[in-house]
Write a structure and sequence with these properties.
The chain is mainly α. The chain is built from 18 helices and 2 strands. The protein has one domain. A two-stranded antiparallel ribbon has the order 1-2. A hairpin with a 2-residue loop joins strand 1 and strand 2. Helix 1 packs across helix 6 and helix 13 packs parallel to helix 16. It is globular and about 70 Å long.
Amino acid sequence: MRKKFYLDPPKILVLGFSVIIIIGAILLSLPISTTDGKGQSFLNAVFTATSATCVTGLVVVDTGSTFTHFGQLIILSMIQIGGLGFMTFATLFAFLLGKRISLKERILLQESLNNLSIEGIVRLARRILIFTAVIEFTGAVILSIRFSFDMPLGKAVYFGIFHSISNFNNAGFDLMGGFHSLTGYVQDPTVTLTICALITLGGIGFIVLNELFEFKKTRKLSLHTKVVLVTSFILLIIGTLGILVLEYSNARTLKPLSFFGKILGALFQSVTSRTAGANTLNIADMTQTSLFLMIFLMFVGASPGSTGGGIKTTTFTTLLGAVWSQIHGKEDVVFYRQRIVYETIYKALTITMSGLFLVMSVTILLTITEHGKDFLMLLFETTSAFATVGLSMGLTPELSHLGRALIIFTMFAGRVGPLTIAYAVTIRRNPDAYRYPKGKIMIG
């Protein structure tokens, strides 16, 4: 009897993202997608499609000058689908067709949104679509009005919509041209604060947004939301103050700016390091200490169930809690008088170690494929790819074919998640029916 082939949620997510990337790459390879009418090489098209679908923002060619409006809209579509998750869009079409969401589809939604429970998952998906539409529309209006002072109205509206969607989804793609990103608006409070708000709202996670929306009625926040908000705020302050102090006297970054401009520049780089990818300062001109701080911020990344990447804020805080408890001789990790279960701590440790292993392995391989490149530049590029950030010191366009393939894999693994890929390639995952006797090893 033939054995029935079963696709579990991790396999479906990996295959779903792969299909979107392949379709996008094919479309970006068409002559209609590029301004020179020749189309992209397939490797470059795959790189761009992966970067867009995985909401990273690393580019081997300049988006604004290389792609036609058709190509840019393909990229924007992949950013939106990749940021919200293809299962969320499948749910949208089901809503429009009046189709009932099956149990299997609800489980896929739960896996895609990284939600703790299947209860209320369809209602959450509906809220996500509403939140996204409202936030992106508001951002687009503000940016369009601001850009209209610098360019024709039609172009300003187009730029406003593109940059609102790109930054809310933490993608970091821009249309400014010349790989300049938003450096021309470093001292502009309207652009800087609007983009920061879009990045932050997209990065804290839809579960948190939903709880904040309902707070007036419920008057309570879950442990998850409290940890996300506190950790995100602390990392934002650390990043902003750190970059402000480290770059204050740097003649190539903050020194020429006014004091208010310095604060805006430091704030933006702190926010964007948390998986967004746009920049208002030239990253290659920043000090090595600042770059290392940004590598740390990138690696931690955004929060679960968001459009961002990294190991996530809750993972980082859980590990810090475990270290704190161990140092103080406590058996449990406790936040806000609630004990964190051991399964969560093990998962946090696994995610962090998997991320570290991937980043270090790819960085080492890049030292072989990219001869003569600075190690910090390679580490920065790899971390940016893994955390789906999109910031670069200028290395991306200079990558060799093998180097581009490595970054493509890193972006994909960072967006889908190393654990999800591991689950997808594992034939069976069954818990042991027995337990071995305890063993002791010396630690430290």
